[in-house]
Amino acid sequence: MGKVIEGTIEAPVQKSAAEKLRSQRFMVMTLNEVKSGEGLFARLNPFKKGVNSKDLVIFSRQLATLVSAGVPIVQGLNILTDQIESPVFKQIIQAIRTDIESGIAIADAMRKHPKAFSELYVSMIKAGETGGVLDAILERLSAYLESAEELKGKVKGAMVYPLVVSGVAGLVTLFLLVFVIPTFKNVFASFGGALPMPTQILLAISDFLRHYFILILIVPFGAFIGIKKWYKTETGVEFVDGWLIRLPVFGDLLKKVAVAKFTRTLGTLIKSGVPILQAMDTIAKTSGNKVVEKAILRTRESIREGEKIADPLKASGIFPAMVTQMISVGEETGNLEVMLTKIADFYDQEVDTAVKALTSLIEPVIICVMGLVIGSIVICMFLPIFQMSSLVDKTS
């Protein structure tokens, strides 16, 4: 009678693991996946390598070129595997290739790796497989990913400069309060009189920072962790996303980004043959904002009940009248995907303009705040000196 043996074996997918065990004359009773390196440190490691969005864009464009040239999908994946530099992405593509060779559909094989391939990506690949136009779908998908990456780069670029300047200003202010101002304390004590109230407040802040410096570092970090956990809850994500989209200037930029992303994604999915209800569901999941997601899901339910797309979008308050009117015209004329692409192109330019305006607005605001803070510190430090000089003038 055989013995029951427990152990682990390395393989890209479970099917490969089972085949390896059978080739070694083992009878597989149960087979469970064990993910290595997913401990606490691995989850919290900020330098953990994942799938870069740029790697995905390059992969999609290259795969589209190979499939258009008539190269079979398995052979195409085999060619691209040797060119991929990211070890994580290379392992994922190898696993997908193995699944396809075993008879699994391309979309189903990609769906097993949500960290690399989004619901949108999988939906479009499935539509391409079903309609026999995988090469055309891959071309559209590549163009969409490139546009999305460009849009993301514009928004990130707008945020980098103000964040860097604000960080430097904060560090300079902290350095003055912790290391520079305490050196004047003994000088002020030798004056013998009461210090001006602004100077007393500044010295009190300096003393607090020096005595509770560790606490000052721990509290923001703890607050960040707490807010991050709260953001994962339903209440937290609705509150934060709703607050962000209502901000005076930044909120307007977020709305334009949401409109550009929604119209381009919907146009690409409809053009690729994805059913409208499935397309709306996919877009809602990839919207990136809970308020926008709920508006799209409400639109989806209205479409299910027989309404047009434009009316519930207009009622949401997120999509401008021009967008809903153009979508309505597209529905009436039967050229919805063309109209959506035109809206997306227009709002890409609007985002570009808004990013430049936001950058030009933030720069003087930060400079004014820096000048106000540092100027206030300098004035508070010189007030006792001014008083001392006036006392000298009176006694002389």
Shape: extended
Poorly predicted ranges = 35-48
Report helical residue fraction. Answer: over 70%
- Percentage of residues in strands: under 5%
Q: Using DSSP, what is the number of strands?
A: 0
Distance from N terminus to C terminus (CA atoms, Å) equals 112 Å
Number of helical stretches of at least 4 residues: 18
CATH top level class name of the largest domain: Mainly Alpha
CATH homologous superfamily of the largest domain? Type II secretion system (T2SS), domain F
Mean pLDDT, rounded to whole units?
A: 79
| Order of secondary-structure elements | HHHHHHHHHHHHHHHHHH
Q: What can be said about the biggest beta sheet?
A: none
Evaluate the radius of gyration: 30 Å
CATH architecture of the largest domain: Up-down Bundle
Number of domains: 2
The CATH topology of the largest domain is given as: Receptor-associated Protein
Outline the secondary-structure elements.
Layout: H1 14-23, H2 40-44, H3 53-68, H4 73-83, H5 87-101, H6 106-111, H7 119-131, H8 134-180, H9 182-189, H10 197-211, H11 213-231, H12 234-245, H13 250-271, H14 276-285, H15 290-304, H16 310-316, H17 321-333, H18 336-395
Helix pairs in contact: 3-4, 3-8, 4-5, 7-8, 8-10, 8-13, 8-18, 13-14, 13-18, 14-15, 15-16, 16-17, 17-18
